[in-house]
Amino acid sequence: MSLSPHRLLALGLAAMLAAGPAMAQSTPVTMALDWTPNTNHIGLFVAQAKGFYDEAGLEVEILPYTDTSAGTLVANHVADFGILGSIGLFTQRTAGADLVAVYALVQTETGRLVFNADRQDIQSPKDLDGKTYAGFGSAWETALIGTIIRNDGGKGDFETVTLGTSAYEALYNGAVDFTLEVYTWEGVKAERDGRAQRAIRYADFGVPDQHTNFIGTSEAYLAEHPDVARAFITATQQGYAYAVAHPDEATDILVDANDDALLDRDFVRASLQALIDGHYLKGEDGAVGAIDPAKMDAVGSFLFETGILKDGNGAEVTEEPDFSAYYTNAYLDAR
């Protein structure tokens, strides 16, 4: 039996309507990393592999790490979203960059000050006076370490050599006395390599606890694409929550998605477990992705009081900014 052209058209339209969202074009979203893929990024790759972004109608491209910071890419509207370090967010935003944090990757500080465990001459921060620090070249480090030492009764006087990631080998070899590390990555690696360390937690000596890093975007993007931003952030939140609940599967996803990075599966799994056990990805209160206003105010005030915040001309700001404008929780799934 032959069908009339009108009947064929009707059937075609019915099929398209039945397909519905499956035939809808996904919205492209770009996400810039702050470093080579690691466990801080695991929720992004989980959300991609498990189809959470697809379900949200998004086609997410995770951009490879480059020498241009994610904050710069986002502020210049080259990338839609990016991983922002806490200090970078505060300094760049104060200087006029179009940046706003929309998701806290970790709920508490992952950094710590470390030294070799056999250093009997170092028992507390004041013993770091006159010692040599292997650093990374930022004003934040000087303010951080000086505050820690002075709050323990020391002068805050120490020598600095800028070594970047070579700092960890220099510490192990005894070429320097102490450095800073991210516990959930470098710290876990040191433990696995049998390099015994002792550590000082920043918040124990007067430095405010903070969300070490964020997912951020621009005010311009939020104004133009609020629904897309909400879809991306809630799907990402789902990815991180899934990683915490299914660490073995999440580890495999991160490693398999980045086979060119030659990630050590056992090391990645240990790092993820440290993030879970320390309530970094999911706070003790169950929070995933939420930004704590009290922490933002405390860190912002610390940076202001130590003279780290500069305006667009490089001059130290003389009036404390309104830090509530630097972040928003409005795009999270509040359930």
Helix/strand layout:
Elements: H1 5-19, E1 27-32, H2 42-49, H3 52-55, E2 58-63, H4 70-75, E3 81-85, H5 86-94, E4 100-104, E5 111-116, E6 132-135, H6 139-150, E7 159-162, H7 167-173, E8 178-182, H8 183-192, E9 197-200, E10 213-217, H9 219-224, H10 226-245, H11 247-257, H12 265-277, H13 293-305
Parallel strand pairs: 1-2, 1-3, 6-7, 6-8
Antiparallel strand pairs: 3-10, 4-10, 5-8, 5-9
Family: Belongs to the NMT1/THI5 family.
GO molecular function, one term: transferase activity
InterPro entries: NMT1/THI5, SsuA/THI5
Number of helices: 13
Distance N to C terminus: 54 Å
Pattern of helices and strands: HEHHEHEHEEEHEHEHEEHHHHH
Spatial ordering of strands, largest sheet: 2-1-3-10-4
Name the CATH architecture of the largest domain: 3-Layer(aba) Sandwich
Number of domains: 2
Largest sheet: 5 strands, mixed
The count of β-strands is 10
Class from helix and strand fractions: alpha/beta
Describe the global form: globular
The oligomerization state is single chain
Summed over residues and divided by their number, the pLDDT gives a mean of 93
| CATH 4th-level superfamily of the largest domain | Periplasmic binding protein-like II
Query: Which CATH top level class of the largest domain fits?
Result: Alpha Beta
Helix content: 40-55%
The name CATH uses for the topology of the largest domain is: D-Maltodextrin-Binding Protein, domain 2
> Uncertain spans, ≥5 residues at pLDDT below 50?
1-23
Q: Strand content of the residues, in percent?
A: 5-15%
Cα-based radius of gyration, to the nearest Å? 23 Å
